[in-house]
Amino acid sequence: MKRLLWISFSIILFLSGISGIKADTILEPISNKNGNVEISLDFKEGYVGAIDLTLKVSSNMKVTGVNWNTALATSYTKRYTYDETNHIVKIYLATGNNTKNLVDKNGKLKVGSLTVKSVNGESTNYTVDILSLSIVDANYTSIAKNDLKIGGNNQFTYQVNNSVEEDKPTTDKPNQSKPNQNTSKDEFEKNPTEEQKPDEESGDKIEQDNKEENTEDDNKENINKKPNDSKEPDDLEENKAKKSFDWKIVFGVVVIAMLLITLISMITKKFKD
What we know:
Elements: H1 2-23, E1 25-33, E2 36-42, E3 50-57, E4 61-68, E5 77-83, E6 88-94, E7 108-118, E8 124-136, E9 142-145, E10 148-150, E11 155-158, H2 163-167, H3 185-188, H4 192-229, H5 231-272
């Protein structure tokens, strides 16, 4: 009889232990990316129609957003609020239909991920803790979960990469000329005064070119003036033609006058006879 009672008591303890294990609800935060913490819940209930989850992020960090799990149906209700003063995030998910289940066949619910960054802009360690959780079962009954645990490591590190800023060149420095890569070391180390000679020679060459250009301009002007100078022979020939024409007129007038005199004298003589 005692043996039977002992066996019964052992079975009751074993079953109560199993039921206690099944009752645990585990928060599994995982950070696979800097400033990103994935939030998953491990339920032992077979059905969860809605959750009301409250998380707290350590005070040296602030939440910048929530990226919902893309596997969640678009018809589900999804919203969150963030208390920046107390660093508390409240997440609400609901299917809206008792025929739809938030958890998969293994009792897991992948909510999504929190995006966070440090308050002071420096690298730091931080934590994500669970404060409260309520679920809605198939009978639309709200149940507050008191058996909350955190699975795995809850310590994360936020890294700020300052190497890019340190490597940036300052814009206040003057531009420095670089030597030609094809120039040998001996040519690059020439006396600065010797390097000035090509500039002086080029200056003399430019001055000589300017003189040649001025000479060409003067020649052009002279060429343009030649047609004007060629007018002098034409004027002389014109004057000669005018003089010869005047003599012809005078000669003609004299001849006409003599003819008239002769004609008048002949007429006069005829009348006298």
